[in-house]
Amino acid sequence: MAITAISHSVCLDCSEGEFTITGNVTGTPGDSTTNAVYVTDPDGNLTTYDNSVIGDDLYTTPFTFSISAGTTNTSGSSSVSSATLTWTTAINTTYSFILRSMVSGVVQDYALSYSTGATTTATEIGNEIRDLINALPASLNLAPATYSSGSLIEINGNTNVYFGLDALVNLTASSVTTNPNLSSSFEDGIYIVKWVLTDGSTFTSTTNSIFLCNVEKCVREKASKVDVGCGCCGNRESEEAMDAIMYLEGIKSAAACGKIEKAKTILSGLEDICNNDCKHC
Question: pTM of this prediction?
Fold first, then answer.
């Protein structure tokens, strides 16, 4: 029986800094089933996980795919908008590197490799590296690579697009990103997670998932500071903790009822409370 419908849920693990998509498929996948996952963060940035990244994880038991937090400043000193690769032409040699994309703040690595045979030229190597770069997902927003002659090729990002290079073998580069600064948590807010499965026909499942790891930590910390045995002090801290708890529950209730904009508004208020901690009573 062919696939007739799909659905999915999202489970966030704050301690591990990742969320897992659990997919449900009605029917039986065929031999050419492909996936794509699109994640829109609270700022409206879109990150695409195509079939080469997901593989068959979402349509073979247990229908899961995990995405880890990996935020970075894409315009920081560890990334560039342009880099030049150079090489020395040699036979029976592998030329490889990792292009580290930083799309929507999520770090993704793409390994590219080409091996020469018993004969080769600089032009052959240049053309092959160019084709590897141009075959990368369009979501990386790189400018089309061109090669004319010699032993070098430029990689360029479009406007405000940054990337890094690492793990170069038989290649040198004008810039190398070896260790981007990663975060262990996601930004709080609404994440739109869309799963698209193609199996002859195309099926789509979309969820609005609210991530609250940072404000939940803030609320726990405020509650822990309340001195329940002090009758003359701590009133301000107690009130602030109660406000924070009510805001947090309000966010969850609004989100559960599908009132996304209301949840966003309440979250903004709770973040204001968390960013202005009471230092004394």
Answer: 0.60
